[in-house]
Amino acid sequence: MKKLVSLLLALAMLLTSAAALAEGSLTIKSTEPNTLNWTQSQSNLDSDVFYLINCFLYRPYNGTAYAEAAEGYTVSDDGLTYTYTLKDGLVYSDGTPVTADDFAYGLLTKIGLDSTANFYLNGEAYVNGEADESEVGIKALDDKTLQITLASYNADFDPELNACPLNRAFAEAQGNALGGTPDNLMYSGPYILTEWVYGSYLTFEKNPSYIYADDSFQISNVKILSSTDSSASTAYSMFETGEVDVIVSAKTELVELVGEQYAHHYDSSAMQMLEFNTTGYYYADGSFQTRDEAVTALLANKNFRLALSWALNREAIVGAVNESGSPTARYYGSTCLGTTDDVAYIDEYPVETVSLTGDEAKAQAYLAAALEELGYSSVDELPTVKYLTFDSEMYRLMAETIQSEWKRVLGINNIEIELQPVQSAIMSMVYMDYDIYYQSLSVTPTAMVTSLNCWMTGGTVSDVMGAGAPFSSIYSNSQFDELMTKAATESDRAARLSLLAQAEQIIIDDAVILPIQFNGSYYIVNDRVHGFVQVDSQEGLMINYATVD
What we know:
- This protein is of the alpha+beta class.
- The chain contains 16 helices and 23 strands.
- The strands form six sheets. A seven-stranded mixed sheet has the order 8-9-10-1-11-21-12, with helices on both faces. The protein has a six-stranded mixed sheet with strand order 16-20-13-19-17-18, sandwiched between helices.
- Strand 6 and strand 7 form a beta hairpin.
- Helix 6 (232-240) runs parallel beside helix 7 (252-258) and helix 9 packs antiparallel against helix 12.
- Mean pLDDT is 87; it is low at 1-22.
């Protein structure tokens, strides 16, 4: 009898344990966020955490989006004003209601950090300090009604916004401390950040106040391991011992170790490219400083930039550095759709580009022309140029490989690599304190404003310093601007894509940026985890409907 009771107790304990596992805990090896201050975040490294702790008007998921905080929206007859109604039951984890003003404030804090300012009525003027908040086309009509007014019709505007709320009073009270610790955040999403040990891990637990807590995000506890040890052998050991369930951005070497049955691949929409500072200025100590004139003249020389571009065998470089990446010689790649969902833009609208395998003879001819134009008799006379990039294994290796190719093909030894931590490198880019910068920008399937529009005169990347700068933009071409302006207001998709292709040809010919790769990646998933989705590193950890055995 005692044995039977013991067996029944053991079975009960086992079933209780199994029930706990059904809700589950999930450990993911990913990347340390750059900052959790929503008003400063400009990096997709922060996306994983923001995806877990915030609700969205429309939550991106598996290549689409679904209404989360929004009940729906209406559009005015002229197509300029979008009015959103919020759902009932939206609260932060402390019980504070989530209001339309929170979404309006969240959007306002972002328009100066990304490329959406030109969508909104007076958005550019607001960023440049020429209009106040009340004049911007983002406002709350009441607690449950958000209204957005566009400056003009724009075919790129996606009304299913992945906007997040930010409580104004809380954010202003926190100041620069916002997002610094779990206590410096408000939680409207499926999880609450409970601990952040910098350089080691972040832990999350379910937020019972989340509007869809009963219907999605059923995993109770999530842990993100953010160790700086990125070696394949360490990751393999952690996966084999069960220390981690999911590894994002996995190396090809790791895929080979764990076996293809655990590996999944996706093509990122983030294009990585080399960008040149041709302005002759940088910002420091509260004012604009003059850069080295010889370096500025060198980078402003089109033939020199073309020499650097044609010297690169992109297929070999990407294959050596990131085997899961896709080399590209175009600004738009296969992720951008054509006039229908079954055709790629690059196939339907071809342009002339640099060869993916490069051309050493062409590169050397362009270099010879540049040297003659600039008055140099040999490459040994060229000034030193700084190549700024992130202090991480992948970015360092990419920089060293590109540097090596330039030395081999062109014989130049004047380009030096400067490694900086992510946040520091981004700030150096913002302050124009670089010569060459390895940039990453999103190129979406609908050819959104976050791509070519960035390089218009006054665009958010081309003119990152905004009003007050002694230069208009890194790049400025009136014909390019005209084509992009027409494309933004063209409702016929075929005509619009044709205009974009013409504009893309101009920016490729001018070689103001050198596209390198669309950074595809692998992710590894333990077979006890079901329903984990990773479609793009910029959207977040999509555990919306994931379960753990």
